[in-house]
């Protein structure tokens, strides 16, 4: 599959009436396991990927390391890959274009770009710059609106602010809108119905069921860092069990066998 064909396939997964479920990965092994479990596409988690390379989240992972990791992930899966690029590693639109181009060159067909509740024109200008650049014009730009993340406007005005930012990013050429940590059904439905762009929400406690999200008009659901945290949590529990109790039991809890995992990478 060519990059353009993969990009078209990814866009088709956002069709009205379909809910794309993305489980976010951090390396080639996690990507291959998620694909084998039935994923229609693969997304990275900026947090889980940073931790896997020894960095905290928040664009502390060097862009070179991110690009290399994306290349490794793309090499082992056959489904489209989209990348959490945080702010794009810059507030300079030209630098963001270069970062997105490098991610696309590594084989990804989409990126998330977040606003961190800064002035909306900052993200809008990045989106416009990316869409003007022919070599990345097909990249799916998912504009992340952070007003529900706990460091934005008060709860009573968050929905209105999200709607306004959504219009700004749509006008700039965004392909999708991502509103993490929104959980109220009325707010989710209002956001989904306010735009022709696919609405993406984040799996968090209190989020309505997948069935309900689909009924509200949501077209994309992200698992975020939770799979990475679950995997590292399982590793920690096994270590504590061994160190403190001298027990091997949790070492053998894995649902995947050695041969089964090895087989996923058979060439």
Give the topology, please:
Layout: H1 3-12, E1 20-22, E2 24-25, H2 28-36, E3 42-44, H3 46-52, H4 63-76, E4 81-84, H5 93-105, E5 110-114, H6 120-132, E6 140-144, H7 155-172, E7 176-178, H8 185-193, E8 199-202, H9 210-216, E9 220-222, H10 226-245, H11 258-264
Parallel strand pairs: 1-9, 2-3, 3-4, 4-5, 5-6, 6-7, 7-8, 8-9
Helix pairs in contact: 2-4, 5-6, 6-7
Key descriptive features of the protein:
globular, 9 strands, single chain, 9-stranded parallel beta sheet, alpha/beta, 267 residues
Overview of the molecule:
The chain has 267 residues and is α/β, with parallel strands linked by helices. The protein contains eleven helices and nine strands. A nine-stranded parallel β-sheet has the order 1-9-8-7-6-5-4-3-2. Helix 6 packs parallel to helix 7. The two termini are 17 Å apart.
Element string (H = helix, E = strand)? HEEHEHHEHEHEHEHEHEHH
Q: What class do helices, strands and sheet pairing give? A: alpha/beta
Termini, distance in Å? 17 Å
Unreliable residue runs:
none
Radius of gyration, CA atoms, in whole angstroms:
19 Å
What spatial order of strands do you see in the largest sheet? 1-9-8-7-6-5-4-3-2
- Compute the number of helices: 11
What would you call the shape? globular
Tell how many strands the DSSP assignment holds. 9
User: Portion of residues in helices?
Assistant: 40-55%
Task: Write a brief caption for the model.
This protein is 48% helix and 12% strand.
């Amino acid at each position: 599959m060519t990059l353009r064909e993969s990009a078209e396939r990814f866009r088709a997964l956002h069709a009205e009436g379909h809910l794309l479920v993305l489980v976010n990965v951090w390396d080639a092994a996690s990507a291959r396991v998620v694909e084998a479990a039935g994923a229609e596409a693969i997304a990275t988690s900026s947090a889980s990927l940073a931790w896997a390379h020894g960095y905290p989240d928040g664009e502390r992972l060097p862009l070179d390391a991110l690009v290399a990791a994306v290349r490794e992930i793309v090499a082992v899966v056959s489904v489209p890959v989209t990348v959490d690029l945080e702010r794009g590693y810059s507030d300079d639109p030209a630098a963001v274009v270069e970062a997105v181009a490098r991610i696309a060159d590594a084989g990804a067909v989409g990126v998330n770009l977040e606003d961190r509740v800064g002035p909306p024109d900052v993200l809008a200008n990045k989106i416009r710059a990316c869409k003007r650049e022919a070599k990345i014009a097909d990249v799916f730009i998912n504009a992340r609106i952070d007003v529900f993340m706990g460091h934005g406007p008060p709860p009573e005005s968050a929905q209105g602010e999200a709607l306004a930012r959504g219009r700004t990013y749509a006008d700039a050429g965004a392909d999708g809108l991502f509103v993490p940590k929104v959980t109220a059904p009325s707010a989710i439905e209002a956001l989904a119905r306010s735009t022709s762009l696919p609405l993406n929400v984040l799996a968090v406690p209190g989020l309505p069921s997948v069935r309900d999200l689909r009924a509200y008009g949501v077209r994309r659901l992200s698992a975020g860092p939770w799979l990475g945290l679950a995997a590292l949590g399982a590793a920690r529990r096994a270590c504590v069990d061994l160190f403190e109790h001298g027990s091997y039991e949790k070492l053998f809890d894995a649902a995947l066998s050695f041969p089964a995992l090895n087989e996923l990478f058979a060439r």
